[in-house]
């Protein structure tokens, strides 16, 4: 892994609750409302994988009906039309690991 990539991964710390075992990001390769999911997969999934090695991640660019995140194969979050940072914020609000400052 090149130093630049490692540095970028270490700077973007994204920790999720241990109960999360998988995140699948589905999106179309082209079309309206899909860019945020594509950018999320490219910009944020690598950091999620790096800081949460217990989570299996999958990005799938195919003819999905809508851009969506599937968490633990049970919860479907429709992310059609959302910006990649908004997708990350939604994920963190629901599943972000909180730390107590003592």
From TrEMBL:
It is found in: Mitochondrion. This is Ribosomal protein/NADH dehydrogenase domain-containing protein. GO terms for molecular function: structural constituent of ribosome. Keywords: Mitochondrion, Ribonucleoprotein, Ribosomal protein. GO terms for cellular component: mitochondrion; ribonucleoprotein complex; ribosome. The keyword Ribosomal protein applies. Its main location: mitochondrion. It comes from Monosiga brevicollis. It comes from the Eukaryota.
